[in-house]
Amino acid sequence: HVQLVESGGGLVQPGGSLRLSCAASGFTFSTYYMNWVRQAPGKESEGVAFVYFGGGSTYYTDAVKGRFTISRDNLQMNSLKSEDTGLYYCATSLTDNWLRGFGYWGQGTQVTVS
């Protein structure tokens, strides 16, 4: 069965770094996009970045461009800001269109920048 397990969240000061990991298993990686989605307190969830397993292409939302780096298993977050605070999920999708939603989700890992 499909399983996504995030780790690496925590409390960090503004300007600091965290590395989130997503241990994924149970599906054919080459046909999927791996996404990181975050939900800040009182806000809707938003896509942060994705990587396409089939070819390695990546995408970042403007708010994190130049600060975050996504790979198949990790999300490296540098120069963190208070507005990056939230619950971070890794989630799979079959397209690069976040409006079409996500398939499988992990349980989430909390990132607090303060």
Task: Characterize the structure shown.
The structure is a single chain. The protein has a 6-stranded mixed sheet with strand order 2-10-9-4-5-6, with no helix packed on it. It contains no helices and 10 strands. Helices cover 0% and strands 46% of the residues. The mean pLDDT is 94. It is globular.
- Oligomerization: single chain
* Cα-based radius of gyration, to the nearest Å: 13 Å
Mass-distribution shape = globular
The topology string of helices and strands comes to EEEEEEEEEE
Instruction: Note the total helix count.
Output: 0
Strand content: over 45%
How much helicity do the residues have? under 10%
How can the largest sheet be summarized?
6 strands, mixed
Main structural class = mainly beta
Mean pLDDT: 94
List how many beta strands DSSP finds: 10
C-alpha termini separation: 37 Å
Strand order of the largest sheet: 2-10-9-4-5-6
| Contiguous runs where pLDDT drops below 50 for at least 5 residues | none
Quick structural gist:
This protein has strands at 3-7, 10-12, 18-25, 33-39, 46-52, 58-60, 68-70, 74-77, 86-93, 109-113.
Key structural traits:
114 residues; mainly beta; 6-stranded mixed β-sheet; globular
Q: What is the topological layout?
A:
Elements (H helix, E strand, L loop, with lengths): L2 E5 L2 E3 L5 E8 L7 E7 L6 E7 L5 E3 L7 E3 L3 E4 L8 E8 L15 E5 L1
Parallel strand pairs: 2-10
Antiparallel strand pairs: 1-3, 3-8, 4-5, 4-9, 5-6, 7-8, 9-10
